[in-house]
């Protein structure tokens, strides 16, 4: 082929809408937040303070105490999701894909429905279910003779965060289930048949044949869970309020950011410290995603059929 | 294309004009009120606004409240964005002072109606030197205890006068077992702080005397007068319903209005909420915070709580000032105090109130020493915010997860970290 290659202008044209919209509503606000965190409110409007907000956030014992508390709670929130939501999701998907299961479509829908409910509804309904005054939880436990196990879970420092994490798991278990279910369905029958001919069935078939084939899907789910959890806010805010009680035991980065940025009751909002927290959250999530991308995803072996 | 559009616009204008009728045409200006009192929406719409509009044709008023907990955050964002309403409902002291200092609220010192208010009434919405007033005081709220009189009669009990009698009473109700002695939860935190600590506290820190001494740095939060209310809160836990740690403010309200709890540590604003809810199922009574010992002085929290200011950026400032002049009038005071029993007018003109419970509350102004909530003036200017910290500490103490002494020490440390007179 002689001469210059034709300009492939259509690539730019087709990319433009997505790039423009994404830039306008994601990149620009993100840079705006980073910029905001470098300023503080001074006598005359806002003044540039460099990294002073971050020095306060990590150096001042009060700010750093609140930050590490929120980060620790957030890590626990994530851990519960990883230990409960994702294994349960995988197990449900494996059960659903069993060929002899009746009413699979019904189960699939029923388990997925909470995912599309609003946080407000989920938070409110669970708060009512678990209420020591009006809830059905004490009555149900009483019915099976385990009334003594009941506690006002959402009001106790030691249980509140775990309870909320499990509520969130209940709500979102449908997502890993669906993704894994799709991955399981995409395994060709020949592979399964070959395994059966070799005498590998049941549990060992799942562990040795199916699990390696769905590992990439599990990886994607893990990273989605990570990003979702570290950006979480709604459920805590709806059920425990912005003060994330009792005694900040359910305070996660999202509620900490909200309180700081917008203020609460007599505490006035501080957009600059808020932006500093948002930046720290962004860095944490970015670091987590990078660890996943470079440390895990590249080592995952993919099979093509 | 253009023609079609024009036709469509014309058609819609005609339709809208026809459907709204002459009322819309007569209203030249519409004022919007920002407020956190979403419970009062109906009263503003049905009673207060029509009374104003009837007297002032040409000015329409819209009451647009948001949820109480989000009010400050939403209001600040709206003011920054320039989308806030013309009239701003003012929180007392620093939250509003900050808005005035950043030129978000207009100076209303020259408003003629300001003469109708005493200096004490205005103090919550003035600059520290008292030179400028920026909100027209609406009402104060009084703390105390409401009780189920029908239940008291049934059990043969009397409202207590002293703290010792108070606990004897609680023990008696608990022993009987029919009623939960007291309705309060620690889940919403502010309930424990506002209806608990700020309710009984003035008795121990001697009202204004202690409050001013704290501001001046002569007393500290670890002094007996400030720790003692926490010790009482710690005792209350035993008399609350099972699982009170997860009991929210609406839960407590319901426990009392459904007749399951005998005593409710209250703010007077509940009168207007409870009366229709109880609807005659039982009789309500009220008693002021018990005194320390027989014959002691009683103190009440008579907190200047709510006022109305003018958005400095309002394009309808003249109409808004007309409205504010009316809000400062005796006519409004009577209308408001009777439409919202439990919100006591701050107007100097005496107001006739019909509600017997509201009369009971307001009667304590004569027999007790009034003060305002200790954390509101000046002491919540810094970070950590004393008011918000007090919520957390009160809830912890009530739930028994922090000792009164530790809680007080933590509050003092937080206050001293930024407030010079306490250092």
TrEMBL record, chain A:
Keyword Cell inner membrane: no
Leader peptide range in chain numbering: none
Alphabetic keyword roster: Cell membrane, Membrane, Transmembrane, Transmembrane helix, Transport
Superkingdom of origin organism: Bacteria
GO CC list: plasma membrane
Localization per record: Cell membrane
Keyword Transport: yes
Chief location of this protein within or outside the cell: membrane
GO biological process, one term: transmembrane transport
Bilayer topology: Multi-pass membrane protein
Spans traversing the lipid bilayer: 12-32, 75-98, 110-130, 159-184, 213-233, 273-295
Domain ABC transmembrane type-1 span(s) in chain numbering: 71-294
PROSITE patterns (UniProt xref): ABC_TM1
Similarity comment: Belongs to the binding-protein-dependent transport system permease family.
Protein name per UniProt: Sugar ABC transporter permease
TrEMBL record, chain B:
Any one of the GO CC terms: periplasmic space
Signal sequence interval, chain numbering: 1-26
The name this protein goes by in its record: Probable sugar-binding periplasmic protein
GO biological process: transmembrane transport
Biological classification of the source: Bacteria, Pseudomonadati, Pseudomonadota, Alphaproteobacteria, Rhodobacterales
Function: Part of a binding-protein-dependent transport system for a sugar.
PANTHER family: ARABINOSE-BINDING PROTEIN-RELATED (PTHR43649), BINDING PROTEIN COMPONENT OF ABC SUGAR TRANSPORTER-RELATED (PTHR43649:SF28)
Coiled-coil annotated spans: none
Organism expressing this protein natively: Paracoccus gahaiensis
Alphabetical list of InterPro entries matching this protein: Bact_solute-bd_prot1, SBP, SBP_1_CS
Keywords: Signal, Transport
Family that this chain belongs to: Belongs to the bacterial solute-binding protein 1 family.
Localization annotation: Periplasm
Main location: periplasm
A Pfam family that the UniProt record links to this protein: SBP_bac_1
């Amino acid at each position: 082929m002689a001469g210059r290659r034709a300009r492939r202008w259509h690539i730019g044209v087709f990319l433009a809408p997505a790039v423009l919209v994404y830039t306008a509503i994601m990149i620009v606000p993100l840079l705006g937040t980073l910029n905001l965190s470098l300023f503080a409110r001074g006598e005359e409007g806002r003044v540039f303070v460099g990294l002073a907000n971050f020095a306060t956030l990590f150096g001042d014992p009060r700010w750093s105490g609140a930050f590490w508390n929120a980060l620790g709670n957030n890590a626990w929130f994530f851990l519960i999701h990883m230990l409960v939501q994702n294994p349960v999701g995988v197990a449900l998907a494996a059960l659903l894909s069993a060929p002899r299961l009746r009413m699979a479509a019904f189960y699939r829908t029923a388990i997925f429905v909470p995912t599309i409910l609003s946080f407000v509804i989920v938070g409110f309904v669970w708060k009512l279910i678990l209420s020591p005054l009006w809830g059905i939880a004490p009555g149900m436990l009483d019915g099976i003779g385990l009334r003594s196990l009941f506690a006002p879970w959402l009001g106790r420092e030691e249980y509140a965060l775990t309870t909320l994490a499990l509520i969130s798991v209940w709500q979102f278990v449908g997502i890993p289930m669906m993704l894994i279910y799709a991955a399981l369905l995409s395994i060709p029958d020949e592979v399964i048949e070959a395994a059966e001919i070799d005498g590998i069935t049941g549990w060992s078939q799942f562990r040795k044949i199916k699990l390696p084939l769905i590992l990439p899907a599990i990886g994607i789910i893990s990273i989605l869970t990570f990003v979702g959890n570290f950006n979480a806010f709604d459920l805590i805010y709806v059920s425990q309020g912005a003060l994330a009680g009792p005694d900040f035991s359910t305070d996660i980065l999202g509620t900490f950011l909200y309180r700081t940025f917008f203020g609460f009751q007599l505490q006035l909002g501080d957009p600059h410290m808020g932006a500093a927290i948002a930046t720290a959250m962004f860095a944490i999530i970015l670091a987590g995603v990078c660890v996943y991308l470079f440390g895990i995803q590249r080592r995952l072996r993919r099979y093509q059929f | 294309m253009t023609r079609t559009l024009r036709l469509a616009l014309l058609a819609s204008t005609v339709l809208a004009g026809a459907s709204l009728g002459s009322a819309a045409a007569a209203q030249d200006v519409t004022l919007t009120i920002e407020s956190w009192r979403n419970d009062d929406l109906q009263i503003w719409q049905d009673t207060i606004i029509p009374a104003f509009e009837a007297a002032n044709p040409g000015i329409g008023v819209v009451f647009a409240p948001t949820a109480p907990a989000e009010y400050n955050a939403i209001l600040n964002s709206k003011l920054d964005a320039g989308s806030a309403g013309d009239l701003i409902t003012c929180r007392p002291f620093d939250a509003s002072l900050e808005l005035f200092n950043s030129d978000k609220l207009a100076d209303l010192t020259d408003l003629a109606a300001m003469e109708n208010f005493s200096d004490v009434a205005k103090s919550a919405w003035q600059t520290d030197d008292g030179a400028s007033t920026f909100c027209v005081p609406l009402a104060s709220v009084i703390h105390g205890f409401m009780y189920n009189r029908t239940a008291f009669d049934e059990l043969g009990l009397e409202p207590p006068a002293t703290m010792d009698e108070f606990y004897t009473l609680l023990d008696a109700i608990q022993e009987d077992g029919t009623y939960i002695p007291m309705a309060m939860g620690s889940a919403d935190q502010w309930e424990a702080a506002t209806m608990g600590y700020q309710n009984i506290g003035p008795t121990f820190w001697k009202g204004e005397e202690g409050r001013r001494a704290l501001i001046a740095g002569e007393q500290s939060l670890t002094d007996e007068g400030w720790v003692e209310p926490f010790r009482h809160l710690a005792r209350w836990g035993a008399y609350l319903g099972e699982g009170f740690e997860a009991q929210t403010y609406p839960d407590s309200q319901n426990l009392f209005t459904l007749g399951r709890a005998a005593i409710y540590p209250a703010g007077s604003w509940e009168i207007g909420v409870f009366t229709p809810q109880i609807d005659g199922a039982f009789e309500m009574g009220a008693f002021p915070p018990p005194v320390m010992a027989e014959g002691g002085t009683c103190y009440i929290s008579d907190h200047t709580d709510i006022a109305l200011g003018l958005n400095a950026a309002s394009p309808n400032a003249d109409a808004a000032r007309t409205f504010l002049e009316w809000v400062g009038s005796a006519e409004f005071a009577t209308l408001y105090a009777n439409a919202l029993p439990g919100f006591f007018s701050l107007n100097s003109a005496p107001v006739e109130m019909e509600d017997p419970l509201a009369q009971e509350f307001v009667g304590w102004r004569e027999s007790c020493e009034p003060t305002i909530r200790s954390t509101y003036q000046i002491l919540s200017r810094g970070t950590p915010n004393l008011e918000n910290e007090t919520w957390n500490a009160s809830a912890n103490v009530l739930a028994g997860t922090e000792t009164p002494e530790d809680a007080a020490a933590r509050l003092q440390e937080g206050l001293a970290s930024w407030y010079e007179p306490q250092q």
